[in-house]
Write a structure and sequence with these properties.
Layout lengths: L14 H19 L5 H15 L8 H16 L5 H110 L6 H22 L12 H4 L1
Helix pairs in contact: 2-3, 3-4
């Protein structure tokens, strides 16, 4: 259907009216280029539009690509797409599927690398923890070694003192043995000469007896006289 002829534009037409006429011209040209389309074409376009509006990652699923390729095929069979357009679409979809497969492979590899990096990070943290614990253990070993050295020095001093005390003890034991022998000898002599202890007293008693007899005899023979004064034998002694 040919567009209806436009009314001639007057030189005196105002600028707003000129814009209005221009818009009407564009609408008529647009309607002449897009005749009424069948319902199937609109349905296929809607499917393609829904695919295009999907999330970028969701558009790459095998089912989504298969569905939109079916749409392109139907549009081509309905003469809505030229052969060049149809082949271009399928070339793009072929490349898209290849890139999708490649993306899945490299994404899997990237996930593995991320896992390796995470494992490496955990291992590095664990190694650092072990190193810190090792350093702490080393410090404790140094402290223990220093204390052990002090104890060894004290032990050396105590060993010297022990030797000195043992020597002194040996001398004391020898003295005790010697004194014990002397005591045993004295006890033996004391046992053999036990009568010697009572002999002075016995003799002294006899001496008193004889002294008493002498005094008595002197009195009997009047040798002592009136002014006789008794002398104690103990005083004489």
């Amino acid at each position: 259907m040919m567009p209806s002829p436009l009314a001639p534009i007057s030189i005196t037409t105002s600028l707003p009216e000129l814009f209005k006429e221009f818009e009407q011209l564009k609408m008529r040209l647009r309607s002449s280029r897009h005749p009424s389309e069948p319902q199937g074409f609109q349905d296929q376009c809607q499917i393609f539009q829904e695919w295009a509006r999907r999330d970028f990652s969701a558009s790459f699923s095998l089912k989504a690509l298969h569905d939109v390729e079916k749409v392109i095929t139907k549009l081509h069979k309905a003469n809505q797409l030229s052969k060049v357009q149809y082949e271009s679409f399928f070339s793009y979809f072929k490349n898209l599927r290849a890139l999708r497969d490649q993306h899945q492979r490299v994404d899997k590899q990237a996930n593995q690398v991320r896992c390796f990096k995470e494992k490496q990070s955990k291992t590095s943290t664990y190694i650092q923890q072990l190193v810190d614990e090792g350093l702490a253990t080393e410090d404790r070993i140094k402290v223990a070694t220093s204390e052990n050295q002090k104890l060894e020095e004290q032990l050396d001093v105590m060993k010297v003192e022990q030797v000195t005390l043992l020597s002194k003890l040996h001398q004391q034991v020898e003295k005790v043995k010697k004194a014990n022998l002397e005591m045993e000898d004295a006890e033996s002599q004391l046992s053999n000469n036990n009568n010697v202890l009572v002999e002075p007293t016995k003799i002294f008693t006899i001496m008193l007896t004889y002294y008493s007899r002498i005094i008595t005899l002197g009195e009997d023979v009047n040798l002592l006289g009136y002014g006789h004064c008794n002398f104690s034998f103990y005083e004489m002694k």
